[in-house]
Structures are given as C-alpha cells and as structure tokens.
Write a structure and sequence with these properties.
This protein is α/β, with parallel strands linked by helices. It contains 7 helices and 5 strands. The protein has a 5-stranded parallel beta sheet with strand order 3-2-1-4-5, with helices on both faces. The model has no long low-confidence stretch (mean pLDDT 92).
Length: 225
C-alpha cells in the first residue's frame, strides 16, 4: 500500500478522512497536534482510535500556539455558544492553523517518501475558516511542489487530498458510517466539561448535531445536556 500522511485530530471529519484514505488504498500515517487547544480531549480520542482504523503510525507533535493566542481555542476567550458569533470568521479560528499543520505533514511525507497528504477540511457545513477553502488547498499543493526537494526532483507531484471539501456534514457522516467509522470514539466540541462531555452549543457541536439529524442518525457521543 502507498503511504499517506493524514492530518488527524480525533474529530468527526478527520476520522472520516482517515477511513477514506484507507479505503482508497493508502496506508495512513496519522499526524496529530497538541497545540495548546482547550479541547485537548480530542487527542485522547485520536490516540485511542488511530490504530483501530488502520493507521500504520501515529505521531503527535507538540507546538504551543497559546503563546500567540488570538483564538478562543488557544487563549482566555469565551467560546461562542448557540450561534452567538456574528463574525464571518469566528473567534474559534486559530491563526494559520491549517497552514502550520500541513507544513508539518509535508515534512513528514517527504521523509516517508510519500506524495499524498489527506486533510479533512470542509467548505460547506463549516464555521467560515479561510484555511478550509478549496483555494487554500490548491495554493498549498502548488507551494508543496515548489518548496521541497521531493517536489522539485521527484517524478510524482505532491497531492493534497481534501475528500470532504464539498460534502455536507450529513454526507460526511453517511460516508463514514458506510466505511465502518465508529463515531463514539470521536470528539468535536470546542468547550467540553472536565469529564470530556460535549457542550452541545458551540459551533462545532451545532454543526455535528445538525449533520446527524439530517443523516437520520443519533449522535452517539455524550453531551452535557
């Protein structure tokens, strides 16, 4: 099987993306980040689930984005609830996060001799993050083939796979279920309680719940209320 680096947070989208990579004939190398996020319970899910869905290896990189702050996920800023954010780009956006993550993925892919990177970004049912758009993915792919030795000298160009980018959350869930994804072992909430239960009212929870409802399924994770 060909190797592919898969950005893997332990959330719904990245877990589905991992299953898709595996189904498309790739041996996944899961890459997660401990970046100072307040919802670090997702890393526990990632560590538990990565080997169960076929990850050949799982690397967790420590980078402290709290030093920069600027986001409700990495600073002492309240997470918006019940759709209260009126900004086009909400305060849960982490500055340059996907650019940083993809850069690490590109480095690991080059070391592994892989030309394929998977990322579970979505441009339909999402929170408005600029680094989830097709234009960003296309631009990073072009950069990857200009900025690396493997890209310049290699015969096979780097490809950034974003298989969820034009799917609704319901379609993502349906595809994951068809591939055998167990969504009990995923986490999406930005503001979980001390027991790791989802709040049910942040943007990520609302999108997740909407997706399960539209898919005609019940979300199997625990919510506070």
């Amino acid at each position: 099987m060909k190797k592919a680096v898969v950005l893997y947070s332990g959330g719904l989208d990245s877990t589905t993306c991992m299953a898709i990579a595996r189904n498309q004939g790739f041996e996944p190398y899961a890459l997660s980040f401990a970046y100072g996020q307040r919802h670090s319970v997702e890393l526990d899910k990632a560590r538990d689930y990565a080997p169960l869905i076929g990850a050949r290896d799982h690397m967790v990189v420590d980078i402290d984005l709290r030093k920069m702050g600027g986001s409700a996920l990495t600073a002492d800023i309240e997470v918006p609830k019940d759709g209260s954010s009126e900004d086009d780009i909400p305060i849960t956006y982490v500055p340059a996060r996907n650019t940083i993550f993809l850069s690490f993925a590109l480095g690991w892919a080059e070391v592994l001799g892989s030309s394929d990177i998977y990322i579970g970004v979505n441009a339909l049912d999402y929170s408005g993050y600029p680094d989830c758009r097709p234009e960003f993915i296309e631009s990073f792919q072009a950069m990857a083939n200009l900025a690396t030795r493997a890209g310049v000298e290699g015969n096979i160009p780097y490809r950034i796979h974003a298989p969820l980018i034009d799917l609704t959350k319901a379609q993502i869930i349906q595809q994951g279920v068809a591939l055998g994804v167990d969504y009990r072992l995923t986490h999406s909430c930005y503001d979980p309680d001390s027991a790791g239960r989802s709040c049910g009212s942040c943007d990520s929870c609302l999108l997740r719940l909407k997706g399960f409802l539209e898919a005609g399924l019940i979300d199997p994770v625990d919510y506070i209320s």
